[in-house]
Amino acid sequence: MAANERYETYSQADTAAAFLAVLAAAAGVLAIFWYPGRLGSAALLVCLIAAAIGGSQRRLVAGCLAIITLCWFVGMVFSVVTDRPIF
Fold first, then answer.
1. Is the four-CA dihedral 22, 45, 38, 16 of positive or negative sign?
2. CA 70: distance to chain centroid?
3. Which ranges of the chain does DSSP label H, i.e. alpha helix?
4. Which residues contact 21 (CB under 8 A, 6 or more apart)?
5. Cα–Cα distance measured from residue 71 to residue 76, given in angstroms and rounded to the nearest whole number
6. CB of 75 within 8 A of CB of 40?
7. C-beta separation of 64 from 44 below 8 A
């Protein structure tokens, strides 16, 4: 086995999907504190685009969707409890 055969190669679409998913997850975490209606919804949309690009990054995108959804829900509850703006 050659040294370069041990590593799995990823296409540019896989790299773009992973980058978009992680960027959306970071925005989802920020949605807990700043405008969860805007930021959380945009993060979900970007992560769904990453899922459409997909490829071999399915598990990463699914995990990011779960994180974003949880953060969106927590941010909405936090905003309602503390009388902060949702949108």
1. positive
2. 11
3. 12-30, 36-53, 58-81
4. 47, 50, 51, 57, 60, 61, 64
5. 8
6. yes
7. no
Q: How many CA atoms lie within 13 A of 62 on its CB side?
A: 5
**Cα–Cα distance measured from residue 28 to residue 25, given in angstroms and rounded to the nearest whole number:** 5
Residue with tokens 């370069």: 4
Domain boundaries, the chain: 29-87
Name the token pair of 87. 């949108």
* Global confidence as pTM: 0.84
Q: Which residues lie below 8 Å from residue 63, measured CB to CB, with a gap of 6+?
A: none
Task: For residue range 28-81, list pLDDT tens digits in order.
Answer: 999 999 999 999 999 999 999 999 997 788 899 999 999 999 999 999 999 999
| Amino acid code (one letter) for 33 | F
Range 65-81 burial, b when 16+ CB lie within 10 A, else e: bebbeebbebbbeebee
